[in-house]
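WARN retry 2 of 3 for item q-0093 after timeout on previous attempt; input resubmitted unchanged.
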Amino acid sequence: NKFNSKQTPIKLSNIGEILGDSIKKSISTILSIGGFIVLFSVILNILESSGILIILTSILEKFGIAKSISLSIITGIIELTNGVNLSCGLYTTFPLFSILLTSFLLGIGGLSVLLQVYSIISKTDLSIKPYIVGKILHGFISAFYTIILVYIFKI
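OK item q-0093 returned
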């Protein structure tokens, strides 16, 4: 006989207890993610009110990047939601760049998303380095595919 004839019986726990624990863990995870979003929104407000964000956009402006574009890039790299919101606001002035930047930011996720993932995998033996490299590649690949689709469909 290929199978072990002495099998240990499977013991099922109380289904209510299992469901309750999974709901508690999911609520905790949702609160953690919301906390990261709020934290990084506050960090962005602090950077803006302290003038640091203006300094960073001025540095990028010296490289020929408009302030509105550099503000969208910096904000999106720090916190995805606010960055995409600013990027979509560029559509009337820079429509193609707005679409590409939004695609890139959605692919890369931003620092807030990176730290959300890191907070979850920090309890495991997984490395964050492949994730970071993958997200950067994802951002560039997303922008690349977006520009191809824009030209194919002549958006």
